[in-house]
Amino acid sequence: MRGNKLAAASLFAASAVVLSACATDSGELTLDVPDVPMIEELGDFEGELNIVNWSGFVEPAWTDQFTADTGCVVNARVAGTSDEMVTLMRTGEYDLVSASGDAALRLIVGGDVQPLNMELIPNFGDDIAEGMKGQIYDTVNGNPYGVPIGRGANLLQYNEDVTGGEPESWDVVWESDSPYAGKITAYDAPIYIADAAVYLMYHEPELGIENPYALDDTQLAAAVDLLKQQNEIIGEYWADPVAQITSFVGGNTVVGTSWEVLRKFADSPNLKTTLPIEGSTGWFDAWLLSTTSPNTACAYAWMDYTSQPDVNGAIAMNFGMAPANLAFCATSEEAQAHCDEFAAEDEAFFDRIWAWTTPIEQCIDGRTDVTCTSFQDWTNAWLTVKG
Amino acid sequence: MTERSPHRDDDTQSADNPSATATVAEAEPRSTEPVTGLHEHSRPLSTYLFQRTRVRLISLLALPMTWLVGIYIVSLVLLLVTAFWVVNPFTSRVTPGFTLDNFVSIFTVPAYLSTSLRTLGMALAVTALSILFAVPLGIYMAKLASPMMRNLLAVAITLPLWAGYLVKILAMRLVFTENGFINWALGPLGVESPGFNVWIAIVTLTYLWFPYMALPVFTAIRQIPNSLFDASADMGARSFGTIFRVVIPLIVPAIIAGSVFTFSLSLGDYLAARFTGGATQMIGSIIASNINLNPPVAAAFSMVPIAFVVMYLMVARRTGSLERM
């Protein structure tokens, strides 16, 4: 699976760079997306930029300099979930969004965001992590739609005082005979179905899951069955990071999905994270530009500005994720420590992470003989899990 | 109801807002009449309004009706309309259309149905628990406690209302968490916190809404004359006999009033379940998670608590308690 994914990624990257005019020649997946024109050249700065972002992505520490440089005043609106981001972007009131992969493809397929002209973003260069270039969630039919910001993995967090060691497998959160039944937590969003699919991919190869985001009806049903089985042993679902942290620190949760940054915030030496043998999912965030944006010059300037090593690193450190621009890691000892902690330069680590991607009806694993389940199906399925 | 109100001015329909204001509207000029007669030129506005009944009525009702119809009703109707719309499965965009699928799914999807019934059960349990605590407390406060104790208890009941709603939920979370108060205080005695589940969510909701039951019940019991207790005792009733045969029948309207709050507020809540219910899902949880993902289903679901409350009020009406409220 790793080889496949990597090959696909590099093919995309290659086609994006070399054959942007005839990307479909690569024989890779072609998605049906609305024809939105790409901007050829930029005009004068419009003086304003409206951004929907994750908490911590847009801070005065780096927007002040940007405004001073360009005259673009940055108005930031923080969103709590990917779904909220999609809803906000569809109001047409925002220029940019810091979308995770599960929101990105929805926006691209819906025609809400426009393809980007990478020539206008000089800072998008060799230093950008390979694993964040040309991924399916923000590069469609060879056209890039997103400028990477940072990434993080959904790891298995465990309370070492209770487990007495590192769990090798995700089975501690999925199987009915888990020794930690009743003290398990899971992420509360439809995209968590992909985590079940990753587990099934490893343990039930006969289901034929090639990509956790390309599930046909049978495969989705199998994932939902697994999630229902898990529902019996779940202590709490979490959507709110603070609730998750208090749950782990308070002892109500012993094992469950987490992010490296949440473990750091919990600041408890007995809490550890691990990437189990099955691999996992993760969120890869990128700037996406609204189709109807009236402030494109400011938006392009912002995407370029935040791709600089120092600014990109500041965002990554502030949020707690691996930066997209790896040149940041070498800028200081503190930066290197941050990059090491979040495995920023460890492509082998991120090769085992399936980046969040919106499931769509077209199977993104390349199958053409079946229809895959869309995000709407996942949403409906997710609600039946919790009953 | 609003259309009938001008013709029916009886005060028994006190729940009917417009009729109540209409009564006030007519009562007012009667009392101001002698004043306008004395100072005819000094009160031009009163004179003007006195001469024009329609203007008077409109100016009185304009503000409450704008709020009631313009904001309160219209927003709900807009929501209801969304419930018939469809979501494009490809882009998950909401598009106007007409489908009953969203309503049908409430009954056909097992998870939706069980969530609705669970929420109903929880709201009833919260109401029952509140009554169970409020009646003895009310009797003690109104009839047995010293004035000092009574004030102290009244403050104790209302004090939590001063704290934010979310603060109280998080406080309950801290009480029942693994390293929390229960295990710290009662752990040595062998009592263990059960962890977060549906029962803890019910306890939290009871904690949240208890004052809304306790206060009307206390007030109602206070209004029962002491002579009734004496009479009951004279006729041979013991304490429990007095409570069940004298007190309870007299305070039923207060209990119904309180239960409207405890019941409907519990139905609409979801944060208590999210923070103290473990994996418990309530109607509110479904609405909250669908409001961005699938607004039509969320809209359809928001009608479920409304339906429950309407049913509840109809049952309460049959008992005749609403008229006495």
What would you say this structure looks like, in words?
Chain B: One of its GO terms (cellular component) is plasma membrane. Chain B: InterPro entries: MetI-like (IPR000515), MetI-like_sf (IPR035906). Chain B: This is Spermidine/putrescine ABC transporter permease. Chain B: It is a multi-pass membrane protein. Chain B: It comes from Pontimonas salivibrio. The complex is a heterodimer of chains A (387) and B (325). Chain A is α/β, with parallel strands linked by helices and 387 residues long. Chain A folds into two domains: 168 residues, D-Maltodextrin-Binding Protein, domain 2 (3-Layer(aba) Sandwich); 154 residues, Periplasmic binding protein-like II (D-Maltodextrin-Binding Protein, domain 2). In chain A, the strands form three sheets. In chain A, strands 1, 2, 3, 6, 12, 13 and 14 form a seven-stranded mixed beta sheet that branches. A five-stranded mixed beta sheet of chain A has the order 9-8-10-7-11. In chain A, helix 2 links the parallel strand 1 and strand 2. The two termini of chain A are 33 Å apart. The N terminus of chain A is likely disordered. With 325 residues, chain B is mostly helical. Chain B has two domains: 39 residues; 218 residues, MetI-like fold, CATH 1.10.3720. Chain B contains 15 helices and two strands. A two-stranded antiparallel ribbon of chain B has the order 1-2. In chain B, strand 1 and strand 2 form a beta hairpin. In chain B, helix 1 runs antiparallel to helix 3, helix 4 packs across helix 14 and helix 11 packs antiparallel against helix 14. Chains A and B meet through helix 3, strand 9, helix 9 and helix 15 of A and helix 5 and helix 13 of B.
